[in-house]
C-alpha cells in the first residue's frame, strides 16, 4: 500500500494533480447550485463520452462507401460480437444526448443563468447545441439506408431553394453532381472529424467559462443581477457557503449521470439499434423516408406550412431563429433571474416546446402523406361490404383501385390526407360527391380524366352507402329521389 | 547590472533587434506557409462548386420498344459523371411517359418540393410523393400538396430508335435538371 | 488464477446472455428488396387484401379465398389474371412487364398460395360436379340463338327470388342489371359469381341456388341474359 501512496505522491509532484483538482472538479461552488436542477449539463457530457467511445469502436468496422456502408451495418448487426449492442448504445446515446442538451438549455434559460456575466457561456452552449444537432443529422446519414439517403436529398433540396447560392450550396454539400460516394464521405468526415473536433474544442471553452465565472447560484425571486456588484456578491456567497464540487456538491451529478448511463444501456439492450431500412439505392422507389426523431418536427413543419412560406422560412426564419438563440443574453437583459418573475421567458419556452412536440407527433403520424400501399393493402372492412348491392361492390373496388384509399381512410384505416369517408354520405349529396370526384378541389386532384362514367356511378353509389344506419344520407333539397344513379339502399 | 549613473537617452526610433526581426520573419514565413497549405485546402474542398456543375450529357434510357404506348414506366440510367465507388447511388431512376408513338415525357424521380421519390399509380394517373404528400398529374403538372411547381422534366431526344435524356445532376429548384 | 477464470466466465456468459436480449436485431426483420419478398401472407396482404378482403372473403371483389372458387380456378388461370389484370374491371395488372410491381415468381407464389391457404377437401368434392369455371360466354351477340331468352327464364327460376323479378334488385339483393355495374364486370366475372356465389355475403353457389343445381347450359344462358343489359357508356 505504501508503494501506491509513494507513486501517487510522485505523480502529484510531477503533474500537480492536487492543484488541478483544486481548480477543476474541486473548485468551490455555491451550496445552492448543488441542486437536482443542475445535473443536465454533466449528464450531457456523460452521453458525449459514450458517443466517443462507441463511435470509435463502430468506426473500426464501418466503411463509408455507398455499397459497403449498408453491408458493414448488417455485419455489425448480425455478425460482429457485440456489434448490435454498440450500435444500440451509439443510437440511444445520441437520442439521450439530444434530449439532455435540450433540457440543459431549457433549464439554463428558465433559471436566467445566461445573464451577466455568463453571456458567452450561453453562446458557446448554443454552438454546442448546434454541433450536437449536426452530429445527429450526420449520424443518421452514416446509417446510409433509404431514410438516410432521402434525408440527404431533402437537405440538398432545402439548400437548392436558397436564392442565388442554391446551386453552389448543393454542390458543395454533395461533393459532386448527385448524392453519392463523395456525399457520404463528406458526411463521414463531418461526423467523425470536423464536428467532434469542434464539439470538443467548444466544450473546453464552455467548461473553462464555467470554471472562470463560476456556476450560477440557484435563482431567488427578487434577487437582482447587477453587473456592478454581481461578481463581488458571488464571490462572497462562495466564500461563505461554498462547497467543493467534488465530493460535496457533485453527488447528484454522479447519481443522475449514472442513471442516464443505465437508461442508455437498457434501451440498447432491450430496444436495440435502429435497423437500416434498405440500401441507399435510389431505384428502390417503394420507400417511405422518415427522419430520426430529432428531425421529425422539421419534417412536419415542411409538410404543414403553406407552400409560399417555405422559401421564406428557409432563407430568413431559420437563420434568424438561430441568431435569436445566440442573442438571448443581449435581448433579455432584465435583472431578474427567477422564472416566476419572468413570465415572458416561461411562455416562450412553453410555446417553443409545445410546438416542437406537436410537430414531432404530427411527424410520426404524417397525416399529410398518402399511405402508398393502402389501395391494395388496406381491406375494405366487411361491414362496408355486407348488404351492399353489386353496383356498390363495384364502386368499392373502384375506390381501392383508383388509389382513393391512399389519401382517404374508411373508419380510420387508410391514408389520413383527406377526410375519412366512413360517414361521407351524411355530409355530401350525390351531386356534390360527383363534382368532388370529377373536379377535385380542396387539395384533392381532379379525377375526371381517369374515371369512366360507369366508374363514377359505381363509386358514388358505394360512397352513398357510407352513412350510419340511423342517419340518412344527405340529399339536396332540389333533386328528387329519382336521380340517374339514385343512392341505392344498402340492399 | 547595476543602474548606470548616466543612462543613454532612448533612441527616437527603436532599433530593430535581432529578436524582433526573427519574430517578424517567423510570422511572415508562417503566413506564407499557411497560405500555401490553406489555399489548396480551400480549393480542394470547394472544387465541388466548379468541377461537376452544369455538366450534362445525353444518356440512353433504352429502346423505344421498352416503353409501351400510352403508359408511364420506370426507367433508370447510370449517371455519367460518377466515380467507380459510387455504387448503387449512381443509378438514377426516372419516369418515362409515352404519350404517342414519338411523343415522350421523362420526369425526374425527385419531387419538386423536397426531393423525395415520387411513385406512379397508373390506375388513377397520379404521381404521389411519400414524404410531404405532393401529388402530380400524369403530364407532370402539380395536382395538390406543397410542391411549388410540376415535376422536373428532362430534355429528351430519340437517336437510333433509342430514347435519350439530358441529365447528370440531381434536380432541385435552383437547377431543374 | 481464480479471478481471471471468473472474468473469462463472465465475458463468455455475457456474450451468450446478450444473444437472448430483445434489443438484438432479428435477422428475420432484415430489409428485403420488394422483389425479394417471397412470403405468401405478406404478398397477399400488401397487394390483394384491399379489394379481396383480409381472408380472401368479405371484400368487394371476387372472393379469392372461397374454397369452391379455389377448387375451380387453376393456378395458371389465377396467374394470368394477377399478371395482366382484367380489362374493363378494377382488377389491375400486377405483373412487372405490364407496369406493375410483382415479379413472375411472386405472382406464382400468390397463385399457388391462395389454394394452399384456403382450399378445402369438401369444396373440391363439390367442384368435381361443377361445370368449368372458365368458359366462353355465349351471348356475345345478344339475342343470338335465343340464348338470352332462355337466360331470362333461368333467371326467373333461380335468381329472381333475391334479385327481384326483373333483376333490378329485390328484398335480399341488389340490381344485377344496372348498366354501371355491368360496365365494370366482365362476362367471366358474371359467370364466376353465378357459379361460385358469394357464400360470404349470403349468395349460394350454382349447386344450392334453387331446387336443383343449375345446369351448365343454364349458367351460360343467364350470364348472356345479364350481359344483354350492358349499355354503352353514356
Description of the molecule:
The complex is a heterotrimer of chains A (491), B (177) and C (234). Chain A has 491 residues and is mainly α. Chain A folds into two domains: 21-365, Cytochrome Bc1 Complex, Chain C, CATH 1.20.810.10; 374-464, Cytochrome Bc1 Complex, Chain D, domain 2, CATH 1.10.760.10. Chain A is 62% helix and 1% strand. Mean pLDDT of chain A is 92; it is low at 479-491. Chain B is an alpha+beta fold and 177 residues long. Chain B has a domain at 57-167: Rieske [2Fe-2S] iron-sulphur domain (Rieske Iron-sulfur Protein, 3-layer Sandwich), CATH 2.102.10. In chain B, the strands form three sheets. A four-stranded antiparallel sheet of chain B has the order 5-6-7-8, with no helix packed on it. Chain B has a three-stranded antiparallel sheet with strand order 1-10-9, with no helix packed on it. In chain B, strands 2-3-4 form a three-stranded antiparallel sheet, with no helix packed on it. The termini of chain B are far apart. Chain C has 234 residues and is mostly helical. Helices cover 48% and strands 0% of the residues of chain C. Chain C has twelve helices and no strands. Chain C has helices at residues 2-19, 40-47, 49-52, 67-72, 75-84, 104-118, 121-128, 147-158, 160-163, 179-183, 187-196, 216-227. Chains in contact: A-B, A-C, B-C. At the A-B interface, helix 4, helix 7, helix 8, helix 9 and helix 13 of A face helix 1 and strand 3 of B.
Which terms would index this structure?
heterotrimer; B: 177 residues; alpha+beta; Rieske Iron-sulfur Protein; 4-stranded antiparallel beta sheet; 1 helix; 19% helix; C: 234 residues; mainly alpha; Cytochrome Bc1 Complex, Chain D, domain 2; 0% strand
What are the SSEs and their pairings?
The complex is a heterotrimer of chains A (491), B (177) and C (234).
Chain A: H1 2-15, H2 17-23, E1 28-29, H3 40-59, H4 66-78, H5 83-110, H6 119-142, H7 146-160, H8 166-174, H9 181-213, H10 230-241, E2 243-244, H11 245-249, H12 251-270, H13 296-304, H14 307-326, H15 328-331, H16 343-365, H17 374-377, H18 390-401, H19 404-407, H20 424-427, H21 430-439, H22 453-464
Antiparallel strand pairs in A: 1-2
Helix pairs in contact in A: 3-5, 3-12, 4-5, 5-6, 5-12, 6-9, 7-8, 13-16, 18-22, 21-22
Chain B: H1 18-51, E1 57-63, E2 72-78, E3 91-100, E4 103-108, E5 119-121, E6 126-128, E7 135-137, E8 142-144, E9 155-159, E10 162-167
Antiparallel strand pairs in B: 1-10, 2-3, 3-4, 5-6, 6-7, 7-8, 9-10
Chain C: H1 2-19, H2 40-47, H3 49-52, H4 67-72, H5 75-84, H6 104-118, H7 121-128, H8 147-158, H9 160-163, H10 179-183, H11 187-196, H12 216-227
Helix pairs in contact in C: 2-6, 5-6, 8-12, 11-12
Amino acid at each position: 500500500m505504501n508503494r501506491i501512496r509513494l507513486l501517487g505522491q510522485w505523480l502529484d509532484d510531477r503533474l500537480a494533480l492536487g492543484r488541478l483538482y483544486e481548480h477543476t472538479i474541486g473548485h468551490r461552488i455555491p451550496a445552492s447550485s448543488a441542486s437536482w436542477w443542475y445535473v443536465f449539463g454533466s449528464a450531457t457530457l456523460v452521453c458525449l463520452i459514450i458517443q466517443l467511445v462507441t463511435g470509435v469502436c463502430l468506426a473500426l468496422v464501418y466503411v463509408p462507401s455507398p455499397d459497403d456502408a449498408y453491408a458493414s451495418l448488417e455485419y455489425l448487426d448480425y455478425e460482429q460480437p457485440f456489434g448490435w449492442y454498440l450500435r444500440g448504445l451509439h443510437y440511444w446515446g445520441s437520442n439521450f444526448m439530444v434530449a439532455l442538451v435540450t433540457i440543459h438549455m431549457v433549464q439554463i434559460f428558465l433559471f436566467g443563468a445566461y445573464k451577466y456575466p455568463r453571456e458567452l457561456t450561453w453562446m458557446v452552449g448554443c454552438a454546442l447545441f448546434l454541433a450536437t444537432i449536426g452530429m445527429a443529422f450526420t449520424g443518421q446519414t452514416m446509417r446510409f439506408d433509404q431514410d438516410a439517403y432521402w434525408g440527404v436529398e431533402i437537405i440538398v433540396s432545402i439548400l437548392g431553394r436558397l436564392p442565388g447560392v442554391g446551386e453552389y450550396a448543393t454542390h458543395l454539400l454533395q461533393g459532386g453532381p448527385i448524392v453519392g460516394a463523395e456525399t457520404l464521405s463528406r458526411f463521414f468526415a463531418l461526423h467523425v472529424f470536423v464536428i467532434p473536433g469542434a464539439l470538443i474544442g467548444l466544450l473546453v471553452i464552455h467548461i473553462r467559462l464555467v470554471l472562470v465565472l463560476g456556476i450560477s447560484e440557484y435563482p431567488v425571486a427578487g434577487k437582482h443581477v447587477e453587473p456592478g456588484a454581481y461578481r463581488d456578491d458571488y464571490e462572497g456567497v462562495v466564500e461563505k457557503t461554498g462547497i467543493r464540487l467534488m465530493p460535496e456538491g457533485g453527488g447528484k451529478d454522479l447519481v443522475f449521470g449514472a442513471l442516464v448511463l443505465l437508461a442508455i444501456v437498457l434501451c440498447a439492450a432491450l430496444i436495440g439499434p435502429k435497423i437500416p431500412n434498405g440500401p441507399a439505392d435510389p431505384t428502390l422507389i417503394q420507400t417511405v423516408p422518415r427522419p430520426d426523431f430529432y428531425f421529425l418536427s422539421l419534417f412536419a413543419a415542411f409538410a404543414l406550412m403553406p407552400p409560399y412560406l417555405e422559401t421564406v422560412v428557409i432563407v430568413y426564419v431559420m437563420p434568424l431563429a438561430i441568431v435569436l438563440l445566440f442573442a438571448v443574453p443581449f435581448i433579455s437583459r432584465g435583472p431578474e433571474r427567477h422564472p416566476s418573475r419572468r413570465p415572458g421567458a416561461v411562455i416562450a419556452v412553453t410555446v417553443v416546446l409545445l410546438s416542437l412536440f406537436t410537430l414531432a407527433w404530427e411527424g410520426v403520424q404524417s397525416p399529410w402523406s398518402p399511405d402508398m400501399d393502402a389501395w391494395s393493402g388496406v381491406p375494405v372492412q366487411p361491414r362496408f361490404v355486407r348488404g351492399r348491392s353489386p353496383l356498390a361492390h363495384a364502386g368499392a373496388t373502384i375506390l381501392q383501385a383508383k388509389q382513393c384509399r391512399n389519401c382517404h381512410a374508411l373508419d380510420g384505416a387508410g391514408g389520413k390526407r383527406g377526410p375519412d369517408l366512413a360517414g361521407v354520405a351524411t355530409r355530401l349529396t350525390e351531386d356534390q360527391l360527383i363534382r368532388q370526384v370529377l373536379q377535385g378541389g380542396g387539395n384533392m386532384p381532379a379525377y375526371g380524366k381517369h374515371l369512366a362514367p360507369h366508374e363514377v356511378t359505381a363509386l358514388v353509389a358505394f360512397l352513398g352507402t357510407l352513412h350510419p344506419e340511423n342517419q340518412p344520407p344527405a340529399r339536396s333539397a332540389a333533386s328528387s329521389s329519382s336521380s340517374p344513379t339514385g343512392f341505392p339502399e344498402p340492399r | 547590472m547595476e543602474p548606470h549613473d548616466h543612462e543613454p537617452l532612448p533612441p527616437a526610433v527603436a532599433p530593430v533587434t535581432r529578436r524582433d526581426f526573427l519574430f517578424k520573419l517567423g510570422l511572415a514565413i508562417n503566413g506564407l506557409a499557411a497560405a500555401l497549405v490553406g489555399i489548396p485546402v480551400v480549393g480542394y474542398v470547394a472544387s465541388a462548386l466548379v468541377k461537376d456543375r452544369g455538366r450534362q450529357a445525353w444518356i440512353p434510357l433504352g429502346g423505344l420498344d421498352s416503353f409501351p404506348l400510352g403508359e408511364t414506366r420506370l426507367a433508370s440510367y447510370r449517371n455519367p459523371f460518377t466515380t467507380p465507388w459510387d455504387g448503387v447511388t449512381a443509378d438514377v431512376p426516372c419516369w418515362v411517359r409515352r404519350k404517342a408513338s414519338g411523343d415522350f415525357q421523362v420526369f425526374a424521380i425527385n419531387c419538386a418540393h423536397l426531393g423525395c421519390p415520387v411513385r406512379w399509380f397508373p390506375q388513377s394517373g397520379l404521381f404521389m410523393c411519400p414524404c410531404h404528400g405532393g401529388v402530380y398529374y400524369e403530364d407532370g403538372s402539380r395536382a395538390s400538396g406543397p410542391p411549388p411547381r410540376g415535376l422536373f422534366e428532362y430534355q429528351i431526344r430519340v437517336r437510333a430508335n433509342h430514347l435519350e435524356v439530358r441529365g447528370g445532376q440531381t434536380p432541385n429548384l435552383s437547377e431543374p435538371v | 488464477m481464480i479471478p481471471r477464470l471468473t472474468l473469462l466466465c463472465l465475458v463468455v456468459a455475457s456474450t451468450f446472455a446478450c444473444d437472448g436480449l430483445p434489443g438484438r436485431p432479428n435477422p428475420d426483420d432484415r430489409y428485403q428488396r420488394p422483389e425479394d419478398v417471397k412470403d405468401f401472407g405478406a404478398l397477399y396482404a400488401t397487394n390483394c387484401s384491399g379489394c379481396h378482403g383480409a381472408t380472401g372473403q368479405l371484400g368487394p371483389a371476387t372472393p379469392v379465398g372461397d374454397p369452391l372458387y379455389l377448387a375451380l380456378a387453376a393456378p395458371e388461370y389465377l396467374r394470368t389474371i394477377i399478371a395482366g389484370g382484367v380489362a374493363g374491371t378494377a382488377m389491375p395488372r400486377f405483373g412487372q412487364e405490364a407496369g406493375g410491381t410483382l415479379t413472375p415468381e411472386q405472382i406464382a407464389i400468390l397463385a399457388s398460395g391462395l389454394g394452399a391457404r384456403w382450399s378445402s377437401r369438401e369444396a373440391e368434392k363439390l367442384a368435381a360436379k361443377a361445370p368449368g369455371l372458365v368458359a366462353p360466354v355465349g351471348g356475345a351477340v345478344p339475342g343470338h340463338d335465343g340464348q338470352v331468352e332462355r337466360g331470362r327464364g333461368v333467371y326467373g327460376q333461380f335468381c329472381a327470388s333475391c334479385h327481384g323479378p326483373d333483376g333490378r334488385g329485390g328484398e335480399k339483393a341488389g340490381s344485377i342489371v344496372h348498366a354501371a355495374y355491368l360496365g365494370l364486370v366482365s362476362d367471366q366475372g358474371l359467370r364466376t359469381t353465378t357459379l361460385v356465389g358469394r357464400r360470404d355475403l349470403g349468395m349460394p353457389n350454382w349447386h344450392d341456388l334453387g331446387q336443383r343445381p343449375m345446369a351448365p347450359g343454364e349458367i351460360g344462358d343467364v350470364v348472356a341474359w345479364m350481359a344483354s343489359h350492358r349499355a354503352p357508356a353514356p
